[in-house]
Amino acid sequence: MKILLIxxxxxxxxxxxxxxxxxxxxxxxxTTFRAAMDKIHVYDYDCILLDISLPDGNGLVLLEELKALxxxxxxxxxxxxxxxxxxxxxxxxxxDDYLPKPFHMAELHARVKSVLRRRKFEGSRIIEIxxxxxxPEERAVHVNDQLLLLSRKEYDIxxxxxxxxxxxxxxxxxxxxxxxxxxxxxxxxxxxxxQIKNLRKKLKExxxxxxxxxxxxxxxxxxxx
Length: 225
Known about the structure:
Radius of gyration: 18 Å
Number of helices: 8
Number of strands: 14
Number of domains: 2
CATH architecture of the largest domain: 3-Layer(aba) Sandwich
CATH topology of the largest domain: Rossmann fold
CATH class of the largest domain: Alpha Beta
Distance between the termini: 25 Å
Oligomer: single chain
Structural class: alpha/beta
């Protein structure tokens, strides 16, 4: 899962990045209103953690822009401004949650998991597709009740396909989501092909009733058997 953290306080930013990456999220950051605006126009995220008090703009304007873009990502406002007016304004503009500072990282993780379940997996803690079962919180995958051992990136790729099961996924979108915006610096997608090849092989060997189908020249799509 890919998170955009919009926060201008260096110590808070560093603590949140370390904590979230420790939970195996792909985390990108923006410390200014302008940098955040640029990112939401270029990249897709599963969840945005938004400080509304930014040095060069109001984070609530970013919420308005996300609404105009019809963006599907979850938004949690993380702010020292704990007024009722700010909460109401943020929620009315489409924020999924509001977490006042200071907070414990355990609460942040719980809030993120909760909004991701609601947005991506219809509120379910366990995802079941035919004979495959995924527990996102434990990062565990079972096929016919047998544990399927996946590398971190293989798991991230599978979860991305599951959360976009009705969509055609381009190689670029997949790379940006699983590897972050550093994907822009690579010369080829060979490492993505390798990860998908290994994942498809493991799914087939374990008899998973789904398939990642390559669409020549475009990308991939998850098909159910």
